[in-house]
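#struct-queue
[09:14] JT: dropping the first one here, sequence first, then the structure tokens:
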Amino acid sequence: MSGPQEQLVAQLARIKDLSGLSLRALATQAGLSSSSLSRYLTGRLVPPWEAVVALCKAVGRDPRPLRPVWAEATKAGAAPPPRRNDLPADLFDFTGREAESAQVEELLRTAGAVAIDGMAGVGKTSLAVHVAHRLAAAYPDGGLYLDLHGFTPGQEPLEPLAALGRLLAALEITHPPAGAVERAALWRSELSRRRALVVLDNAVDAEQVRPLLPGAGKSAVLVTSRNRLVSLDGVPPVSVAPFTAGDAADLFGRAAGLGATDDQAVGQVLQQCGGLPLALRMAGARLRHRPGWTVAVLAERLRDTAGRFDAVFGMSLHQLDPAQRRLFRLLGVLPGADFDAAVAGALADVPADRLGAVLDELVDAHLLQELSPGRFRMHDLIRQYAADLAADEEPQADAALRRVLQHYLAQAVTRDRMLPSPQRPQPAAGNPAEALAWFDLEYVNLVAGFDAAVRLGVDEVVAELPQAMRVWFFRHRGTDDQTRLLQAAADAAGRLGRHQERAALLSDLGFALAAAGRLTEALAAYEVAEREGPDDELAAGLALRTGLARRDLGDLEAAQEQLRRARELFEKLGRPAGQSQALAFEGWVTLRLGRRAEAVDLARASVALAAGPGQVTGLVTLGLAVEDPAESLRTLREALRLSEEHNLQHNQAWCHNALGVALRGMGSLDPALEHHRRAFALLEPLAEVQLEIDCLHEYAETCRVAGRPDEALALLDRIVALARELGRPHDEQLARAARQKI
């Protein structure tokens, strides 16, 4: 290794190899976050000396020989991280805007934010993207782009909660907190450690943007909107006007392939285009595709068409053949943000491989934008124009949209079958990582398609699409749309007379509500599912989930009854995995009821029936139930090892919390507190309110026993606030009783 920073990275990699642990497990062992450790190991960040010491201690190595290497690496600084770039491509023919570009760049340097406003089609997004590309070197952590759909035809503006979820997902935070305030705080925290440029395109108003702004740090934000966002404090505006005659002529000439000219016909074309870059490019493309025309002919054609912008758009359509014009009209009714050739093929009912030339023609005419190879979108103005044409001239638009919805459903089902799940241990052939990446890419379009299916009354798609997204939703718990989609899907399944599907969807709805801490609503969903007459397998799952909700509400006898029923049904069905889970949770409830020996027996039976990560639930129950301290710690650490090995972040937090409880009982209070802290570090990015409440109770008790009354009171106050918000009097009573002990 040549430089000190590379030498330090090599030494840290050696420590990881010596540990024999996964990155996440080593981070937990050393009391670090896995994201920080990843940056240390890739050279993106020089660790503080305390982190080097913690890593050395984790493998029993003396850190002192590393001190000189660390000191030199600190002086040299970290290697630049790989740059993320979500920005659309810069326009090859970007023209003019020198003054506006300079103003935007200066405001980004001084204020760290700027809002570009102007009328539709004036080039706000083009200017923002152009400046972002010019300043790429000043923002080494990359450029993020998000369309807020403030004025997108057929779509509601993106709510701040959902927008924050997508921005955090771009930073690889897949389980954001449930609330908008918490997400905004996490977003600001993440940006404070980066130097990134964020482009928030197409904002409807200041209220939509305000929660998305970065806080302290060196990141910056560029906002575009048709409205002037005067109430957005700290974000100075830059207004963009239509082109002056000189810039308009330059852009038209470049788009048309003309040399410099100022004849009268050009002036007439420019007047029809109103100085809007979008219209100028389209008019120029029209002329370029008709080499036999003169500028005067183009001006005459535009003048003879009613409506200035309709004239420009219509002239671009005239250069297309009937099949190309039909696809253009149909694209106006397509839901979602972008699309690929396969979606366009489903829309037009034409094989995708025959659409390549058609799509290329639409791109050349500036009727489509190609965001990346094979990925397309429409400008909002053009989309509205296409939608208007479809409403007037395309009687089969609804049928075309239904084909797209069926296409999305079929693709989702195919990819879902590639993903392993407890119900499907042997998935279909395929690459699970690619399947998940497809869901990540198409998620916005799938939700938009689902909403279109609801509007059209396509109940089959409404009922089946959330089922095809079940595994993806499980891995992305807390996704804002999940409960809404599941409720609508259950209603659609009921209309179709599919009672088993309706019961399964209601069960999933209840599970999502329970994870968010909304237990009363979860139980209501489970009760409706029961009335649908579920088969034994679904009834077993419902009994298990109902038992857990009853447990968390403090109704232990009712919980035990449901968990026993679940255990018996799973045993009858020959489902050892389900039986193991029911036994483990029944053991947990039995322990709380004061029957320790019986709880130990149930937990051991659970572990014996399960394998791999399926043993975690039984091991945690067993570790809390056994009286021998050595066996307790050994069992809980095995549960933690399995959770880390299989990257089960929720279970890791649960295991750390259980270790805190066990160590508290043994009088080892400092290690107990450390495990509680690790549990909450893991919980921070997760939308798991129920697990958070469980951990808060135990953490507060450990703080009380350790003589930390202020910390204990703060944790108990958090429980009271959550309990009131979610309608959970049992948790509020427990917290208030605990306060009385302090």
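[09:21] JT: and here's the second one, same format:
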Amino acid sequence: MSETKNTKSQIRLPIILALAISAGIWIGATFAEPKGNQNDLRAALYKLQEIMTYINRDYVDSVNTNELVEFGITKMLENLDPHSSYIPARDASLAQSQLEGEFDGIGVEFGIIRDTIYVVAPLTGGPSEALGIQSGDQIISVDGKNVAGIGITNRDVFDYLRGPRGSKVLVEIKRKNQLSLIPYEITRDKIPQYSINASYMINNEIGYIKVTRFAATTYEEFKTSLALLQGKGMKKLIIDLQGNPGGYMGAAINMADELLGDRDLIVSQVGKVSQYSQKAYAFKPGMFEEGSVIVLINEGSASASEILAGAIQDNDRGLIVGRRSFGKGLVQMPIDLSDGAELRLTIARYFTPSGRSIQKPYDSNYGAYETDLLKRYEHGEFFSADSIKFNDSLKFQTKKGRTVYGGGGIMPDYFVALDTTMNSPYVNRLFNTDSSREFILDFVTKNKADFAQMTLDKYYTDYKVSDAMLMELVEYGKKNKVEFDAKGFNKSKEYLRVLVKAHLGRQIYDDNAFYKVINDINEVYVQAMNLFGEADRISMATNLKVEGVE
């Protein structure tokens, strides 16, 4: 019989788990858990310690203890609810930067085309722009290490190019019409990320603001956008939350406060622990409390998007247009763990001002929860409001007496069916592969001089995407193994024309150009433009139930 010798990790493991037990007891004491619960916690943690010790010492194969624990944590949280989650240390900083609104890096928007990092655009004010890095440049090496043709992923690019502000990174760039690689030593800096992607005047009265997520900087961006639009004469406002997955609740609350009157309830939060139960009210004079408001939502609008939409709807401040939102009304608290990982633990539920729970139902079958949107699509909900059946026990009243329903998500005041008539699998393949990105980059590079003197307004009103351009894109598709489909092409030709113009506009100008063009075929946006009379009727009425407006 061979002698078994304890490794350092075997010695450390009971110590670590003992510390975990101590921490668990301390947390229990902090929240004044009943004594029985504390005993249950001790017993559960001791059981975990026993099992992990046996696995580490006696299991037939060697195991990575940390990976095993992380797997166990993930499965444990999945048993709680669909949104409690664990983010390993290696991913926590990236996840946090997406909410903070800024990160440290070299300042480029990139894409991976043919297994090579392409610079889609240097970010305005960033170090790459200052050094002269251009759209279409290919990053071939980073700090002397080849990064082209090695199967690089987005995660790899973040690891290579992001880093502490003030640190330096050497990249070698391949540029069209240049025979040799161009070296750049880039000093990383703080790079802002914007959560309001577009803000512009649609006409002399109507302003448009596209909010893509709710980050730490969103509220300040929103105020800046409001001020600029009001300076241009805005009297009516469209807030576009379609596809916005949410983010910081505080950003949504502060934005609602700029639109709602004093002491209007914005959202309620109810948790098991009293400190997590609270209500948020409008409390200060808002920048846009009087003008007409329409909020656009769809099945991709979740969490903080639903807080803002629910506050506008339940206070009868404006009109909600689109399709039923996602239905995420569980509140996660981010908890930094000692090794740099992050626990996002559900600690409360959101309720709209009328008392509706935003969260859609869920049980232990999270597969069904995750495929809910597909089931809605197959059931016909995206195409007909009549397919949605409401439970009368979940009937609520808005501030002025309109009937609204709970049961998960925000049902719009005005339903707009999803329009799929122009779409085709062929167009999706063209725009979900390298084909469209490669074509756009090359076309802008070749025609840069033609666009140099063209204003955005001129581009929007006058520029035409020719048939020759579409056929050129088709050839790029063939090079990327997207087989030409004449039927799909002919069905979606005009849609394809709009897509190309929108993506070209983004590359030449900014996201304002993209949304100005693409919104012309966005069915929710198009319908909303005709509904400001209804929005005014809701916000100006005194008692909508008596007037029969529901």
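[09:30] RK: nice, looked through the second one.
[09:31] RK: Confidence is low (pLDDT under 50) at residues 1-32, 546-550.
[09:31] JT: good to know. The first strand starts at residue 85 and ends at 87.
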